[in-house]
Every structure is written in C-alpha cells, then in structure tokens.
Specification:
single chain; about 375 residues; alpha+beta; 4-stranded mixed beta sheet; 13 strands
C-alpha cells in the first residue's frame, strides 16, 4: 500500500460531545485529588444524559467534600458552554458514587520497595509519531482537532454566534507513497441555535476549514465534498441528545486510527494506571526518535503485567525495516529510560494536576505548557537517538 494512492480518514469530537463532557469531568476528579495529594489513586467513570451526571469509581487519598466536587462538575459544564433546557450547569442533577479503592488492586500496585512498584494493570500501550505535521502527528486527526478547537475558542469568546458546544469533524486525505498530498473531503456536524438555518450554519463553519488546513492541501477540494450538517438541523445535542460515557473516544484521543491502540482509555485514571502513563511514555519515545531524524515514522509498543514493574516487552517499528537500527534504538531506550510506572511518572512529572486540559482535542500533538501539561510532547531527548 505504501507505493499506491489511497484515502485515509480521521474524526474528532468537540469538548461538548457527550462522551467528552464525561472525559472532562473524570479528569477534573483526577486533578482534584492530585492537587491535594500527588500520590492519590483515582479511577473515575462519568455518565451524562438529559439533565443528569453520575460519577462512579474508586479513589484513595485525601477526603474531598462531596459538595465541592459537585460544584466543580458544574463549573466544567459551564466552561464547556451548556446552559440549555435539557442540560444546564445550573440545574443538572449530579450524583457521585466514588468509593475507596479495592485493597486487592492496591496490593498489586504497592510495594515496600518503591522502586519496584508494580503497574496498575496489565495491558499494551502504543505511541506513534510521524513527519506529516509540525507536531509530528498524522495529518487527518491533527486537522480534525484543529477545526473544532478553533470553533470552540471563537464560540467562547463570542465571535461565533449561534453555534452550540456539541460538534464533530472528519477529514479525508489522499496519500501518495505514504505521504498526504491533498484533502478530498471534510465533514463537520455542529449543534446550533434554532435561529440559524443550514445555509447560515455552513457560512459560519466553512472558514474554520481554511483556518485549520494549509492551502496547498485544499486547492483541489470541491465544494460538494464539504459536508456541513449533512442530515439537516442539529438543535438538540450534547447529553440531552445522546448519553455520554468516559473513555469512549480512544481513537479520537490518540492517532485517529493511523496507529494501533491498546484498548485502554486515558481519562479518569491517575498515572499509576499504565493505560495512561505508558501510552504517554510511548508517544514521548516515538516523538523523540522521529525528531532525531532516525526515521520518518516510529511506532512503539509497551506491554505490562499488573503488579510487575518493568515492561514485559518493548517493540519498535520504523518507516523502513532496518533490524540493526531498531536494535540500536531499543538499546538506547533500555539504557536511558526508566519505563517502570514510577520511572515514567518521575520522568514526565505525571503526579501533578495536569489532566483536565487533555480531555478534548487529543492527548497528543499538543504544546507543552509551563504548568507541566503535555510533558510527553517535549523533544528534549532527540539527541540520544541521532544514529
């Protein structure tokens, strides 16, 4: 396939999508605990539906007042922008069923020798990077995210009137010899006020395609291949239109299907859960390898067993199959990176309250901040991999 022309599509969903509302709330809970105690344990699932939010899961750490947590849930919903009849931050009914973490799980993770602290679960995690965009992400998911992120920014600052929080985007690109060459279609579905007809919605939304995707990719995009609300009006949306759950958008969260996914969600989990922390570490490795010039693409897989500290396996795949180079890279990883759960957390400073911001527009391809957010996006180890 690498030498042929083919189409590849990725989708994104906005922070107002019902599942993303849940991811935001679950990650807020993680941050709330970590801000009080950096070694807190949290596994929080959230459900949303018409005027209802339900939190459930396990925690271990400081006591957090139930009403304070409920107020923080309301603030999340308010910031997203929901003040609608079927889902409003003011009136939504919020229930919380968080309880103490199982002693059996804690026993598998804890250790008297903290250096041998075990993984919080078994599983496989993937990291990926490629040179399709400046942030070393696959182009279709990168542009899909950017369209919705810019729409949300303008909706919140008042520049985009009549557009509501629940939106989806989808970008299809033509590839030749493994590289993206043009966009062949774009789909954007967005919730809107009843005052807007579909012609007006289209007029408001199409400029965000041009703002998000470089012109050279759009030169051959036909107007008929831009689909805005293709089924018609989209007034009832968000949790009022569709029930949401934490962790249901794992491909949106990662690489848009351009790379494998181990199956575990990120949101709502503290960094002892390797579903989250090891996926971040794998991206960190892959991004630094590609940044070094060692390969145009890199896929990393890490595998863990619950209660066991070191990864059971490390798999590296490059754009060109070069056994000697791959073995050299694996040796560099083994010699320079501590991929135990504790080692990952210390390397990427993951015990901080940095997760709420990750809950929408992707966990990867973002800019590291001075607050420690997206630390796994740094390319400070690229020199190690210059072969």
């Amino acid at each position: 396939m690498i030498n042929n022309k083919y189409l590849f599509t990725s989708e994104s969903v906005s922070e107002g999508h019902p599942d993303k509302v849940c991811d935001r709330i679950s990650d807020m809970v993680v941050d709330s605990y970590l801000s009080k105690d950096p070694v807190s344990r949290v596994a929080c699932e959230t459900l949303t539906t018409t005027n209802k939010v339900v939190l459930a899961g396990e925690t271990r750490g400081p006591k957090i007042d139930k009403e304070d947590l409920i107020n923080k849930v309301r603030n999340c919903i308010k910031d997203i922008g929901y003040d609608q009849k079927g889902f409003s931050w003011k009136t939504v009914n919020i229930e919380t069923f968080l309880h103490e973490q199982s002693a059996d799980i804690a026993m598998g993770v804890d250790s008297n020798d903290k250096k041998e602290e075990g993984a919080g679960d078994q599983g496989i995690m993937f990291g990926y990077a490629c040179k399709e965009t400046e942030d070393l992400m696959p182009a279709p998911i990168y542009f899909s995210h950017k369209i919705l992120r810019l729409m949300a920014e303008d909706r919140k600052n008042g520049k985009l009137q009549g557009i509501e929080p629940d939106s989806k985007s989808q970008v299809t690109m033509m590839y030749e010899k493994g590289k993206p060459v043009k966009v062949t279609s774009v789909v954007i579905s967005t919730q809107h006020s009843k005052e807007l007809d579909q012609k007006k919605v289209r007029e408001l939304i199409i400029p965000y395609i041009n703002k998000s995707i470089p012109k050279n990719y759009l030169d051959e995009l036909k107007t008929k291949e831009i689909y805005v609300n293709p089924t018609g009006q989209f007034i009832i949306g968000g949790p009022d239109g569709d029930t949401g759950l934490t962790g249901r958008k794992i491909i949106v969260d990662t690489y848009g299907g351009a790379a494998p996914h181990g199956g575990g969600a990120f949101s709502g989990k503290d960094p002892t859960k390797v579903d989250r922390s090891a996926a971040y570490a794998a991206r960190y490795l892959a991004k630094n390898i590609v940044s070094s010039g060692a390969s145009e693409q890199c896929l990393i897989q890490l595998a863990y067993a619950i209660g066991v500290s070191k990864p059971l396996s490390i798999f590296v795949k490059l754009a060109q199959e070069d056994h000697a180079k791959i073995e050299n890279i694996k040796k560099i990883i083994n010699d320079n990176f501590d991929l135990t759960p504790r080692g990952i957390r210390e390397m990427l400073k993951l015990n901080n309250p940095i997760y709420e911001i990750t809950s929408s527009y992707g966990h990867f391809g973002r800019k590291p901040t001075n607050k420690g957010e997206f630390s796994w996006e740094k390319i400070d180890k690229a020199d190690l991999f210059k072969l």
